Every structure is written in structure tokens, then in C-alpha cells.
Amino acid sequence: MRVLAVGAHPDDIELGCGATLLAHQARGDEVGLLVMTTGERGPQDARSRIGEQEDAAAILSASLIWGGFEDGNVPEGRDAITVVQRAIARSSPDLIYTHTPRDTHQDHRATAAAVLSAARRMRQVLLYESPTSIQFTPSIFVDVAALIESKMDLVRAHMSQVLKNGLVDLEALEAQARYHGFRARLRYAEAFESDRFLWDLAPMPQPRASERVALQEPGPSPFRPPVGEIDVPVS
Amino acid sequence: MRVLAVGAHPDDIELGCGATLLAHQARGDEVGLLVMTTGERGPQDARSRIGEQEDAAAILSASLIWGGFEDGNVPEGRDAITVVQRAIARSSPDLIYTHTPRDTHQDHRATAAAVLSAARRMRQVLLYESPTSIQFTPSIFVDVAALIESKMDLVRAHMSQVLKNGLVDLEALEAQARYHGFRARLRYAEAFESDRFLWDLAPMPQPRASERVALQEPGPSPFRPPVGEIDVPVS
Amino acid sequence: MRVLAVGAHPDDIELGCGATLLAHQARGDEVGLLVMTTGERGPQDARSRIGEQEDAAAILSASLIWGGFEDGNVPEGRDAITVVQRAIARSSPDLIYTHTPRDTHQDHRATAAAVLSAARRMRQVLLYESPTSIQFTPSIFVDVAALIESKMDLVRAHMSQVLKNGLVDLEALEAQARYHGFRARLRYAEAFESDRFLWDLAPMPQPRASERVALQEPGPSPFRPPVGEIDVPVS
Amino acid sequence: MRVLAVGAHPDDIELGCGATLLAHQARGDEVGLLVMTTGERGPQDARSRIGEQEDAAAILSASLIWGGFEDGNVPEGRDAITVVQRAIARSSPDLIYTHTPRDTHQDHRATAAAVLSAARRMRQVLLYESPTSIQFTPSIFVDVAALIESKMDLVRAHMSQVLKNGLVDLEALEAQARYHGFRARLRYAEAFESDRFLWDLAPMPQPRASERVALQEPGPSPFRPPVGEIDVPVS
Amino acid sequence: MRVLAVGAHPDDIELGCGATLLAHQARGDEVGLLVMTTGERGPQDARSRIGEQEDAAAILSASLIWGGFEDGNVPEGRDAITVVQRAIARSSPDLIYTHTPRDTHQDHRATAAAVLSAARRMRQVLLYESPTSIQFTPSIFVDVAALIESKMDLVRAHMSQVLKNGLVDLEALEAQARYHGFRARLRYAEAFESDRFLWDLAPMPQPRASERVALQEPGPSPFRPPVGEIDVPVS
Amino acid sequence: MRVLAVGAHPDDIELGCGATLLAHQARGDEVGLLVMTTGERGPQDARSRIGEQEDAAAILSASLIWGGFEDGNVPEGRDAITVVQRAIARSSPDLIYTHTPRDTHQDHRATAAAVLSAARRMRQVLLYESPTSIQFTPSIFVDVAALIESKMDLVRAHMSQVLKNGLVDLEALEAQARYHGFRARLRYAEAFESDRFLWDLAPMPQPRASERVALQEPGPSPFRPPVGEIDVPVS
Fold first, then answer.
1. Residue A111 in 3-state DSSP?
2. pLDDT in tens, E114-137
3. CA distance B55 to D176
4. Are C1 and C130 in contact (CB under 8 A)?
């Protein structure tokens, strides 16, 4: 299986679905990350948030694509959609994770809107919670009891945020997993709203084929697609 | 995997999730059916609806339990909950299917309420659509393109309804699967609202053990638990 | 009665409410179309989508206005609102049809937002479904059993999309009308969410007067209002 | 056209949709009322609420059926559904008005549930607001500017409530019509949530035939259908 | 200020709003508890749950009324409403706390429905979360950082449940307060859905008068009002 | 207590929460106003809407900040967010009032989105209704019976709108307060949706300290922050 997780800033993905991505990694699934901005306006220290995100991707054995947008200013509309479409075209994911669109952070909202547009021909889009989400009402849960400590380590890769951003709080993160777990009758859970989820009930185990096209290699340098070069049909 | 499907009347389960149950059967999962009433007030012919439901259960290789309630009068409350709890205790299902609670048919609403109460310690409850459901907004889909014809055959087991009940319409049933499929980017789909769904991302394939306790054998004669004999804790 | 239907791309209106517009035509109502883009990024063949939309308008005896925006890039905000306001000012519609705003396609969302803003002093706005809509929960239905075949012919005017765009699927379109019809206890229905609908219970039949002001003549050439020339108060 | 309005207590119908019923009357439509209880536990004076409801029915030229249930104790379930089914069978309404089901009054909720069940094969159910409704979000409006004074007179037929029940407040009633009217860009409106509404766009005016079966004559004496005599299929 | 908290079973109130009631106690507000059942079907030990609830009431300096209903069988309808109305009549609360009605436990749902009905003339009803609530979306928060330890002690009064009922989990309870607190930008919070909340912006501090009528003294013995003796108007 | 009210145009704040601000004033709370545009495209007369807004601010003893955006064109995104963040930084409000985001007016939507983003670390955001709001479902109410006449006077400060804008209608405004009041069991109420509301149950009366930092003095001349000078962290 191939999954693509999209977040607005370094650490958004890990906070929202880090343990689930660790579970994908453990299964041998291919994991790709698309981070729309480098979070350059957050309280980072000298070691750049780019490096922190690269470290997190390495822990996840995930490829990493940068969206190249400005922190605080992710556009709603075609430019952002095109970036996501390109990431989809490269990695052919079976499922996409992104922010729930009900969020007070403008970059989270814009990212969610772009992903929902870009993924409109896909069959599976799951939406994760952020500290700024509102009225999050999940219906799909992943058991992360065995992974909660590893998730904490993963988030710690984003050292600058853990130390300085009041909305990145490891204790609250554990409480969140415990709360959603309790509601799902699990010890710890990551929780998702489902835009569309295809439950695979095929009788045969799905071969995880070696014929899969190689996922995009990690690309630490931000890129922005030239306007006018968009080749993926949108309607 | 063990699943239990609960419906108010003969044919409700097959209309709502028949193809999905056929997929479970094909995987070797154990399927149990709990039908709350015999539908005795519907437009049945001489051949009883009990027999039709038994035929459908046979096609599904499913055990069948009758709830023993009166058609049109499924109670909201403890009696119905107890019947569902007993069925759960016997079959230890991993997942329950039942009516969405937003439905204009009183028996569908009462059945849904009873199942949600009885299953409140379980991890997985999926809700299917009926012809009388309202504002059905599914988020989990099962690909049934290979099973839509078999589903039609399954529903035809309920011959009396297909011939005489205007709300059982095979053509509309196919349109429903086509509509939900199109929305989920599939050819045909059964669609579910998710109260709670545990997505199993464990790395190892789940053994479908032979140590499973045998499911309740088909029980054509309706039973009603004696009041006062309820032994399953409810709070 | 005068109605205005607004869509983002050629074919959106016909897919969403084509049979209803045919019913308006049969009643002698005036029908206007406003199409925000020419859909130039879709999989069209040589014969332009402009011509296809003109053909569809001719079948509907409808006037046609082009919004002049770029496919995939309909703006949210004043420019789009102004275009809709101008179309309203010209045709004085009693009712507007447009996309439901809950849609994963950015152009559909932007068009819906623009129409809802521009029509905020009007009494009737009905919202139709697209293949990319989400959580569509209609409450007003139009019986289109007698018109479903004509609707198919109308959509076939958009030949390039029917042949090449996977989301334009005549079979799925019929299933959609059958599904909504079944839910509304009709054979085939077009379904609408209602932002505001005025049910006319006046005792006298409404004269469909010949004194109506002429609707804007069909305008095949795209126009875009000059910025700064906006004369319709917006607050 | 034939309409049936169902309310839990004397005055509920007039408060919720009295002006709309006056509009039906003015059009020559047949109006039937079904009142589930006689409201005997309210603060009535010597002149019975039965008489007040009869007076209101006379003003509306409406037939009147009593449901025969106990005030404060309208059952959720088959008995109430059967009463509504009988009223439907007698009057063959094209449309039913009843309480919105989101209401803190148990009798309003039970009545709404019963009507939604009994009307599940009908094409049109509109839901009106009561003083105890919650989160009422109407989408269909009727212009009652010409009828607001007549509505006040109609409600004044329920003299005992106007004088003594704090939740029957003519000034608040006018404010309600003014508020909903303003939101619908009308002067005064009655507002409805729509469960299902069939918008008739047929080209020919609908003949209001003389072959209509006569509506049930007003029946002031409460009746309750004998249990076991229910002959209307429910599933 | 006078508040009344209503729960279905011993411990429901303390789990849902225990810290908030401690805050009321600290302000000198009068606190009343109404517990609909004695929870006799839960996994209690020899020391009765009645005694545990009395202990909790003593910690809260709260009066205690028992509803007298059977565990697992709280009725939806007039009997339960009457019990709540009597409790309201005795204690004249300014605000009522109760279960959110969206809950899979039948007793929680029935209690919430009864309270919403009984309180329909009151100005303030806040709804708390239970382990079986679904889609809880709070909008009013109380800062309980200084009270979270005391809340744990309060819940420990319900020793039998803490030891034996899997859905009473002190660690999960703390995680819940931490989660809601984090979302409300507090350290620990209790969270409420608001049916109606009156924010008092009066310029003068509200006198907490000594002329208050005495609250009903704690009544450990269950009572059930005789049918027919109901004297509180319901419509 | 310090509150900040944000509106898109002159008069939006007074229409939405004018009486509540008068109540704050009467308590001695500090009130700040942020108006995003000068409403220059509305039907104003010679006396500018700037002056009218200044008059309204004076009546409220409120400081006034202008957002400096163009009427009809308030941006969704960083520029608007930055303006709100600056206003927050200057006045350190405990609570913010703004438009509900469900509104058909683009400026209202954009203002609401900007405020929700800018206030994402705050504990209290209440949302008011406008004539163009849709599906407004309030849960927090302020009793304004003693202030409704003063609110009318406050709105009359916006003379140009009262005389010429059909959506500013004092009679409808009173009906709105009467309607919401009736629903909240009050005579007149202003009603709010609650994004987050912290109910202060601290035992001691809150000192309204003289050490408060002075609110920004009224700034009648519109300003627009230079792009690039944004210094408030956003993520």
C-alpha cells in the first residue's frame, strides 16, 4: 500500500497521524510526506525546521516533498492544488491523509481544501486533527497503543516546536491519544474523520508488489511548480 | 473475523449490506444475522417471511437468530437491548452492522438504538441505509462490483417483498449501489456511516483461527428472553 | 417565472439540474445560463466546449452568459460576485440554481460562494449536486420521470466530456436520478438543497406575462467586466 | 390540493403554520387537522380546549380529527403511528405539516416521530416550529404578510392559552414571523424545515378535482383505534 | 446561584461535571443532585452504590434526590419528566446540568430527554459528556486546573465502579480533562454542550441571598411519584 | 474585562452585538472595535460612514481601529489575519466578538475567518448574527431587555444605512431580539454561537484592575499594515 500524508508545516503530519504512519512503515507500506511550507515564521531555533522535518521523514522511512509555499500564506486555489496533484502523480498513493478542513489556522484550512480538490478522483482521504481544529468528530480509529512512545520520539524530532510553541505539547498529545482511544474502546488511538474510505474486503491478501513504481526520492529543497505548466486535468 | 448484522425485518439486512456480507462469506469470515421481527405485517404471501429469511441466511452461510419482537412494535429500551446483548454474547462479533438511526421507520430506529446501546463496549459499528433512511451521509465504502448480481439474487430470496412491497425495488437497489459507487469512485459500492471503525494496520495478517467458538446455529423459531433473566451488565 | 442557472464549467448546469430546466422550458419560463469558465483545461476535443454549451443552451431555449474566468481558477471574492450580480441585474431571476458549496472542486466551491453572495437579497436559491459534491442532503425534489431521456440528450450535447471525462457518466447520471427519485417516492427526481425557497401559495394562478423584460440574448463570446466598473451595491 | 396538519395539542398547529393553512384555505385547498391530545393538562379555563380547537378548525374551514392520546403522554411508536395512518388513509393528503422533531416537549417529539413514520410513503412532509423547538433551521418559506393579522385571530381562538400559557405570546409570534420573513427577504413569513418537498413544475395547472373523496367531517369526540385493528401496512 | 445536576446512575454526575460542581461549592452556590437510578445492575460490591453516591453528595455539600427508576430502564416520557419537574420545583435551580442526549446508553439518552423536557421553561441547560457519548462537540468550558485532583477524589467515592467498571477509568478521565483543556487553551477543563446558556452581564454583583428557599435535604431512599399526582403543567 | 468586537463594515458590530457591548460598558469593561472596511460602497450619504462609526464608538466609550480594507473585498488570509492580530496585541482582549462564518456576504465570511485564525490562542470567541447569516444556531444568550432601546439609538448612529439599506431595518432588529429572547425564555436577547467560551466560576469576584494597559486610542484614519512587517507568530 502507498500512502501520502500532507501537512501545512513541519510537525503537522507527525502530530496528526505520526503513529499511524509508523504502523504503515511497520507493515512495509510506502509512505510519502508533502509539507506545504517550511514553517519559517514559527519559533524555530538555529537548526532549521527543514532539517527537523527531514529527520522525522527519515524515522518514518518516508520520502519528503516540499510544497514551497510561504508560512502563513498557503493559497486556497489552483497553485496549492497543483502542488498536491504533482505529489499524487509521482507517488500514486492509495490513500491520502491531511488536515481536517474545520480548523482555525488558515494554512491548515487551505491545505485541506487543496488536498480534497486534488484527490477528488481518489478513493480514500482521511482527515487528522490539529491543535487548532474545531468540532473534530472522528469515525475511524487506528490502535496506536504499541506506538505511542515512538510517536513521541517522532514528534521530538521537531525539537524547536516542542521547546517553544505552546500548541505543541507532548503531554497534551498523549492525552489526546488516550482520549480518542478511550472513546474507541482502545488504550491509545489516532482518530480520523473520513471523507471517503474504501474498506478492502477482498478475499485474497493484497500482494504488495515489487512492480510498484518507485516513490519520489526525498526532496529537501523546496520547489514551486511554474505557473502554466500544469498538466493534470482538474475538472 | 466475525460479524453480526442486525435488522428489524426479514430483508432489511440483505437490502442494507447484503453484498458486503457476501464479501465476508468469500473471505471465510463468520457471519451472524439477528432479525428483530418476522415482518408479519408486511405484504407477505403464503410462504412465510421466516422461510425467506432462512433461505437468505443459507445463501450467506450465516447463522440466524430471531429477536422475537412484534412487527411495527420493536421496543426502544431494555428488552430490545437485551436481545442484542445475548446475540453479541453468543457470537462475539468483531463488528456489527445495523440500520442508521436516522430513519422514518420506527422499527429501524428502535433497532438501531438497541444495537448502539448493546454494542457500546465494542470497537466497530457500521450503519447501513434503508429505503426509509433520511440524510444518509456515508463515509466508508465497500467495493461490490463483483457482487452486485449475487446481491440481487440474495434479495430475491425475499420473494414476497420483491413482488409486493413498493419500497423493495431491485432496480432502485442497483441504482443505489451505482450512485454510492460513483461517489466513491467505484462502479458499485455499499455505503456505511461509521459510528466507530477500527482500521487494522497490524503488520501481520490476522489468523482466522479454527478455535473460534461456533456461532449460534440457525434458530427459526422466534424467542423472547424472559424478563428478569438479563445477565449482561448494561452500565 | 424567470430562472438563472449558474455553473462553473460547460456541462455542470446540465448535469446538476438539466431536467428541471427542461421542465421550466416546458412551462414557458425564461431560463438563463451563466457559465463561469469555458472549461478549457478539461479533456475536450477540437470542437470547443463553448460550442457544446451553446448547443445545450439552444436545446433549453436559454440565454447564455459566459463568466470569463479561467478554468480551475474561479476566484472566491469580488470579481466572481460581480459577474453574478451583473447576470442577476440583466435577467431579474425569481430563482437561482447553483452548485452546492460542499464540493471538492475548487471552481464549484468558488462559484457557489459567489452566487450565494450575489443573491443575498433574493428569495430563492436552490443548490444542485455535482460528481464532486460531498454530503449532499437534498430536501426539495422535482419529478423528472418524463424528462430523464431528454436530460440525457441534453448532456450528450457536451460530447467531449461524455466521451473522455470519467466523472461524466450517463449511466451514473441515470442512477443518481433513480436514487433520489426512490428516496422521494418518485421514479426519477432531480434533488436540491435549499438555501431559501419561497413556496408560492397565492390563490390566483401567476400570470406569465408578456410584459416581462427580455432576457439577455445569448452571448457566446466570453466577457469579463472591467474592474472598477462595478455598480451594484454589495453590502 | 389536500393538506393535513398534525399537532400534539390544541393550538400547536395554529402557532406553527396557521397562516399557511389560511393561504391553503384561500386557494380552495382542502385542509385537515389531526390533534393528538386535547391538551387537558394545560392551563385551560372552563371553556374547553376542545371547543377552542373546533373554533379554530371552523375558521380554517378544516376537518378536525382527534388523536385521543393523553396530554403529556403521546406514545412514541405504533399506537400513535396508527392514528396518523388512519388520518392519512381518510384524507389522502398531498402534503403533511407537523412539528419539527427537534423539540424539548415530549409530545411534540413523539408526534413528529409518528408522523414521519406514518408518512414514509408520502412525497411531502414539512416541519414547523414551536416555542419549545431547538436549532430550527428552516429552508422553505411561505409569504404571510397578508395573513399575519388573520393568523393572530386564529390563535386567539385558543383563548385559554393566550391568557394563561407563558409560551403562547402573540407579540413573540409576530416577532417570529417578522424574523423569519426578514431572513427570507419577505415582510412576514412562516418557515419550514423540509423533510421532503416535491416542487411541482408541471406545465399545466393542476385541476382541483371534484372527484376528491370527501375529507373526514370534523369529529370533536376523541377516538382511539382499537389495538389489533390496524390494517395499514407499516413496513 | 442554585444548580441542579441530573445523572442516570451513581457516578455519572461526578464523571461528567464533578469539578464544575466543586467550583460551585467553592463559590457558595447551592448544589442539588438528582440520580435517576441506583445503578443496581452495575458491578458494585457489597457497599451499596447508594452509599457511594451519598458520600459523593457529602463531599459536594449537595442535596441528593433519587429518581427511583430501574437501572437500564429509565423511561422516555412522562414519568421521568415528572420526577425531574419535581426536583426543579423543590430546588428552583438557575441552571441544570445533564447528559448530552447523543449517547449510546439508553438511560443517559432517556435522562437527557426527560431533563430537556422538564427544563423547557428554564434559561440554562448545560450538557456533559459520558464515556458512552457520541460526537460530543462542546462550546462552553470551565477551568478546572485547580480542581482536577479533587475531582479524582470525588470520583473515587464511587469505589465499586472505579474498581470494576471498565468505562470508569481515572487515567482516561484525566486525559479527557487535559484534552478538552488543551482545546480551550487551558490546562484542564470540563467541557459542555450548551442547549441554552444565559451569560450574566449585569453590572452589579449578584447577591447570593440568604432568603433562598432551603434545598431539599438529601433523600437516600428512592421514591417514585404516584401516577396521577402530577401537578406541574407540561405544555 | 476587556472585549474586542470585530465587524466587516460600519454598523455590523452594532447590529450584531450592540446591546451586549452596552452591557459591557455599563459594567465598566473596556470595549474595543475593529472595523475592517469603511463600507464605502454602501448607500451612504455625504456624511461619511467613518463619522457614523466614530459616533457609535463614542456612545459605547469604545476605542476604534480601522482595518483599512476595501469594501466588498476583505481578503481571506494573512493580510486580514495580521490586522486582527495587531488589534489583539494592542488591546489584550479576554473575549472577541465577530461575525458567524456561515454568512452569504463575502466580507463577513472573510472577517470571521480572519478573526478565528488570529484568535486561535485565545479562550473566548463568540459569533454574532448578521442579516446575511445562514443557519444561525445560537447557544449563548445575553439578556438585553433593559438595553433594547439604547441599542436602537446606537444603530441609529449609522443613519445612512438605516435610511437607505434595506437590510438595516430597526423593526426587524427588534423582532430579532424578541425572537431570540423568546427562545431563551427572556424578553429580549442578543444571541451568540460559541466557538469557545470560558465560564468563569472562580469563587472571588474578579477585580477590574486599574493596572490594565490602556486600550489603543481611537484611530479614525484607516491604516493598512505594510506587507512584510508582520511580527506576530501565526503558527
1. helix
2. 999 999 999 999 999 999 999 999
3. 56
4. no
Amino acid at F201: L
Burial C132-158 (b: 16+ CB within 10 A, else e): bbbebebbbbbbbeebbebbbebbbbb
C-alpha grid cell, residue D183: 431572513
Q: What is the ipTM of this complex?
A: 0.85
Cell 475593529, residue?
F34
Q: Which residues contact C152 (CB under 8 A, 6 or more apart)?
A: C170, C173, C174
- Contact, B187 vs C169, CB < 8 A? no
Contacts of C182 in chain B (CB under 8 A): 131, 169, 172, 175-176
Residues of chain F contacting residue E28, judged by C-beta atoms under 8 Å apart: 203
User: How many residues are given for chain F?
Assistant: 235
What pLDDT digit, counting tens, does each position of F177-233 carry? 999 999 999 999 999 999 999 999 986 544 444 433 333 333 332 333 333 333 334
Contact yes or no for B119/B125 (Cβ under 8 A): yes
What element of type H or E holds A198?
strand A189-198
The CA distance from F78 to F159, in Å, is 33
Residue A15 CA from chain centroid, whole number: 9
Q: By a Cβ cutoff of 8 Å, what residues of chain B touch chain A?
A: 20, 23-24, 26-28, 121-123, 139-143, 183-186, 193-203, 205
Rounded (5°) CA angle C141-C142-C148 = 125
Query: Which residues of chain F are at the C interface, by a Cβ-Cβ cutoff of 8 Å?
Result: 9, 39, 41-43, 71-73, 75-76, 104-107, 109-110, 132, 134, 165-167
Half-sphere exposure of F143 (CA within 13 A, CB side): 14
Q: Give the minimum alpha-carbon distance from B115 to chain C in angstroms, rounded to a whole number.
A: 25
Burial of A133-148, coded b for 16+ CB within 10 Å and e otherwise, reads: bbebebbbbbbbeebb
Q: Give chain B's contact residues with E (Cβ, < 8 Å).
A: 76-78, 81, 113, 116-117, 119-121, 195, 230, 233-235
Q: What whole-number distance in Å separates Cα of residue F86 and Cα of residue F92?
A: 10
Which helix (H) or strand (E) covers residue E96, if one does?
strand E95-99
Instruction: Outline where E28-97 has alpha helix (H).
Output: 49-59, 78-91
B95 vs B123: CA distance, rounded Å: 7
DSSP type of residue B9: S
DSSP assignment of C139-183: -EEEE-TTTHHHHHHHHHTSHHHHHH-TT--HHHHHHHHHHHHHH
In chain E, pLDDT over 70 holds for what percent of residues?
Answer: 84
pTM of the model: 0.88
**Spatial separation of the C-alpha atoms in residues A169 and A176, rounded to whole Å:** 10
Which grid cell sits at B165? 412491497
Chain position carrying cell 492509495: A94
> Which residues are F98's β-sheet partners?
F127
- Min CA distance, D183 vs chain F (Å)? 7
β-strand pairing of A189-198 with A125-128: antiparallel
For residue A17, give the H/E element and its range. helix A12-27
Phi then psi dihedrals of residue D154, to 5 deg = -60, -45
Number of other residues whose CB lies within 10 A of the CB of residue B73: 16
For the stretch B154-188, pLDDT in tens is 999 998 887 777 777 899 999 999 999 999 999 99
- What is the distance in angstroms between the Cα of C19 and the nearest Cα belonging to chain A? 22
End-to-end CA distance of chain A: give it in Å, rounded: 27
Can you tell me the distance from the alpha carbon of E63 to that of E13, in angstroms, rounded to the nearest whole number? 13
Alpha-carbon A197 to chain mean position: 16
SS3 label, residue E58: helix
Helical pair C106-118 and C78-91, crossing angle rounded to 10 deg: 50
For residue F231, give the nearest of F68, F81, F95, F123 by alpha carbon: F81
Average pLDDT, chain E: 86
Other CB atoms within 10 Å distance of the CB of residue B206: 9
